[in-house]
Amino acid sequence: MNCRHCETELHHVFADLGHCPPSNSMLSAQQLEEPELHYPLKTYVCHNCFLVQIGEVKKAADIFGAEYTYFSSYSSSWLNHAKRYVDMMMTRFGYTQDSLVIEAASNDGYLLQYFQEYGVPVLGIDPTANTARIAAGKGIRTLVDFFTTKLARELASADQKADLIIGNNVLAHVPDINDFVGGMHVALKPGGVVTMEFPHLLNLVEKCQFDTIYHEHYSYLSLSTVNRIFASQGLTVFDLEELPTHGGSLRIFARHTTDAAKPVTEAVRALLAREREAGMLTLEYYQDFQPRIDTVRTDLLGFLLEQKRLGKRVAGYGAAAKGNTLINYCGIQGTGLIEFVADVSPYKQNKYLPGSHIPVLAADLIREKQPDYVLILPWNLREEIAERLGFISEWGGQFVVAIPELEVYSHAPSTSRVAQV
């Protein structure tokens, strides 16, 4: 197997999570009686460009097919994040009705709707037909397709080059990252801007966020590696922001390398230096990750088994992909250690988690069933979820998170008291 960016042969394993089903492949009751495909979930680090990557064992067209269960608009915090971004970009770059904003992986129009409110023409590109239908219902023009260099050429030939190309949490999802970035170069106007948001590999390693590894994520990205990939395709990262989203993300700003009007900022130089000082350009940085993963598994299983012994009931909250990675790696299947997982999305309710076959129920059933513990699976939304479910304190319920280490805590409207376990 060769590196997706530089073609160097891969030898160095970063994390091996065994065999798992695709993390967003929710199951119906009928499918529980059918065979379920599992794929290796092993990541490697390239010793040349330090791109951390998974083997392409499940094709993108199969993962992001006609029906996809993740809808961005079901997270209020993510909607607020998108609105703040749009307001910032309008202020900074002054887009008008003569501009064009293109978003790759536009999902259900959660972000482009805010540009549309400003009167700025938009185009969404997303391969999932069901999310695209929701976007179309909001009046957002959407192409049901993958963003590729081929599609970018078609847009350019149709005079559809963009003043702004956006990609939020998509750069990690593309199997051919060179082609994807090259497509942005083709589809971007000479003075245009690209912004990409992606979880920062530095945080994944330092905070043991191994549950963000799943088949839908082909790449795990540092600024150093992204900078190299963009440069190879004629684009230059000229600015960045560090964001709290998804456990710590980067928002990069890129432009054509020939566009000297946008100088590279000190923020870019400083983070490149910080990554270098942390050791991210050495193999040693990546070689002690597996034992830390195994500690998380041991601690979570120990907690769940102890609650089962004591007759306590544990429910999960948030049928997120990262939660499925965690649950499947821990081997929590058919054990009753987690009775059910609650989720606000009707597209996930009354289905079953892949691999573990834990039932997914409506979020309001938490109050009815009154579990002793609620395991928050999308830990990046722990504050939003704890506020939403603060009522579990009425019966003495407590919250649990497993990443980066096991925590059990009680929530009150004004404060949280957190106990390390």
From TrEMBL:
Gene Ontology biological-process annotations: methylation
Keyword rRNA-binding part of the UniProt annotation: no
MF terms (GO), sorted A to Z: methyltransferase activity
Keyword rRNA processing applies: no
C-methyltransferase domain sequence ranges: 244-404
Domain Methyltransferase putative zinc binding: 3-64
Keywords per UniProt: Methyltransferase, Transferase
Descriptive protein name: Class I SAM-dependent methyltransferase
Organism annotation: Hymenobacter oligotrophus
